[in-house]
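User: Here's a chain of 224 residues. Predict its fold as tokens.
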Amino acid sequence: MKRLRIKRYLFTGLLTFIPLWVTWVVFKFVLSMLAGIGTPLASALLATLSSGSPLAGVVLNNAWITFVIALLLTLGVLYILGALANRVIGQRLIDGFDALLARIPLVQTIYGGTKKLMAVLQQKPSGVQRVVLVDFPRKGMKVVGFVTRVMTEEGTGREMAAVYIPTTPNPTGGYLEVVAVDELTPTDWTMDQAMAFIISGGAVAPDTLPASPVVSRELARDSE
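Assistant: Prediction complete.
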């Protein structure tokens, strides 16, 4: 009896720990990415302070202090960028910066493509639900995908959708699939609901899922 109670407590503790661990992994990834952007500036700032005051250099020569300062600097820069982007003068500066990068072939491809992806994910393509289910990696298995663009196939005239399929629990990586629109399973999920489903590994999910187009057509034929 005591052994069963120990196993139950260990299992309960594991179930309690896993959500915290997944949250920490995602949170740590985001913080590390943001801090990495500001690390060069933070290092330069700390080096300047150290040269002016040796005592301050000893106190500030700590990896955690560098990490926190780099993170704060990055968040400050992002806030300033966001404030500028919402003003006419700031928008003109950003447009000028975009025009400058557009003259650099490789940089323009990466920067322009990433910027378009971020913009596309904020709006719904005409005639197609943004969050869909896709057969991947084989028929019968479904994954959550985001429609980023709808195109027309030459010759057949079929509508084809470019679908970004993020990975779990880190949605910043993933796959790009080109799928016929009539093979997509539309959902009524919002972007937030889809991201919660992906990051949680499916734990945060609705009780029901929409039927695929093939199943829906078969059910419609059976009911006739």
